[in-house]
Amino acid sequence: MNIEYKISASRMYPVLMCIFGLALWCGTAQAQYTQYAVFTSSPNPVGSGARAIGMGGAFIAVADDATAASWNPAGLTQLRKPEFSFAYSYFRRREEYRVADHPEATGSSVVSNDDLNYLSIAYPFTLFERNMIVSLNYQLLYEFNKQINMFAKDANSGYSIEQKMHYRQEGKLRTLSPAYAIQITPRLSLGVTFNWWTDNLFWRNGWQTDEVVKAYMFSSSRSGTEFNLHYHERYYDFTGFNMNLGFLWHANRMVTIGGVLKTPFTAHVKHKRQDETVIYYPDLTMDKIPYYLRENVRLHMPLSFGFGIALRFSDALTMSLDIYHTQWSKFILENSSGERISPITAKLTRDSHVSGTTQVRLGAEYLFILTNTVIPVRGGLFYDPEPADNHPADFWGITLGTGASIKNAVFDIAYQYRQGNNVGKQALTSIPGSEADVFQHLIIASLIYHF
Asked: Where does residue 359 rank: exposed (0-12), middle (13-18), buried (19+ CB within 10 A)?
């Protein structure tokens, strides 16, 4: 760590006044600013695939394609032929934000991104008179792309302050995940997915943030001091290991029950932060205040588990329901000083009040079985709250999906709309008194080919 100060005593008072005024953007403590993890996709663990998303993500007790490795690996035993699959997604997020004490800061921001969402190859076989399957999977789990531009004014002790802030964050977390499943009895299957979170393959795991604040502090004479603050922060080389453990029980021809547990783990992450504050005075002189930090941190990822039930009323109609819980109070960042911080609130864990979240997902699929193809129609509803201080932020959503199968190929496409109103400052990093309405759109297309 290296901090240098070059401010003379005669200039200290106006500098401090402006720094305290800049707390609107930066927070009042450096530790609070540095330890946020701002998810732009849902932070709750979910799987992939257009078929599953089209059914509202209620797929734990269905899980009958290669994406089962991400939902419930026990479902892989339902595959009867080797298959290759991939999914590609487009994600768009719009935020309409406001700050209670600064109505002039009201605005909106839009970010979008497209990427490979899932890739897998699965091979079923029989051994010791048991149906088994192995698969190798790649999954994009979390996205961090975000952008905010704001302008605000403030007055303090005879000084007026005008501020412009530009905030940009980008990054992703991915896994390489081999999976194995075995059919214990004709009705009961067990499965496991091994998730390697790694930065050493063909992608980078982590996120980085750049924030630029330009402020002008002036008196009634309009003679003033200009501040340019640039914060650059990077979390990278994110590595860890956990497992998805699942079961699938066909209670009878109509009812299937499934469960999955995603184990907690500790990720090792490198953290680097570099700040610079440049101050321009009316007498044309200049000061610089640098700050540099480099450390290794540990990010404790929480336990999550879910249960699902699927009802097959006929060969054409299936309905499913999932309930899923994540223990976000166990989501903790431990820095090189030994401080344990909640990345959700940016506070020490002893001062945070983050409770777990429970998702509820409901989906349905109807198949139009034609001579040479099958055309599905899918839909779903879900409640997908995000963790926050004191009380989770409510997010609701709806999904639609369809597709077609032609010989050995199956194509699916789905659309998901997810919305949260008045979701608070977790949507706007560390800006106090802020609220936001969030609107998310996801389009995902999958192609499965059976050998």
From this structure: buried
Task: Tell me phi and psi for residue 316, to 5 degrees.
Answer: -100, -30
pLDDT (tens digit per residue) in 53-62: 999 999 999 9
State how far the Cα of 372 lies from the Cα of 436, in Å rounded to an integer: 48
Which residues make Cβ contacts (< 8 Å) with residue 310, sequence separation at least 6? 61, 62, 255, 256, 257, 258, 318, 319, 320
Considering only 20-24, 39-43, 68-72, which range has the smallest mean pLDDT? 20-24
> CA torsion angle for 174, 33, 217, 288 (degrees, to 10)?
-80
Are 232 and 290 spatial neighbours (Cβ–Cβ below 8 Å)? no
Q: Across the strands, what pairs with 261?
A: 245, 305
Of these ranges, 89-98, 141-150, 430-439, the one predicted with the greatest mean pLDDT is 89-98
Cβ atoms of 49 and 62 within 8 Å: the answer is: no
- The answer to whether 333 and 298 are in contact (CB under 8 A) is yes
pLDDT tens per residue, range 53-101: 999 999 999 999 889 999 999 999 999 899 999 999 999 999 888 877 7
pLDDT, average across residues 103-130: 89
Q: Which domains does the chain have, with CATH numbers?
A: 2-450 (2.40.160.60)
Phi and psi angles of residue 433, each rounded to the nearest 5 degrees, phi first: 70, 15
Asked if 217 and 161 count as a contact pair (C-beta separation under 8 A), the reply is yes
* 8 Å CB contact between 393 and 385: yes
Tokens of 118: 């899932």
CA–CA distances in Å: residue 424 to residues 30, 44, 259? 21, 18, 32
pLDDT > 50? residue 390: yes
Phi/psi for 430 (5° steps) reads: -100, 25
Radius of gyration of the chain (CA): 25
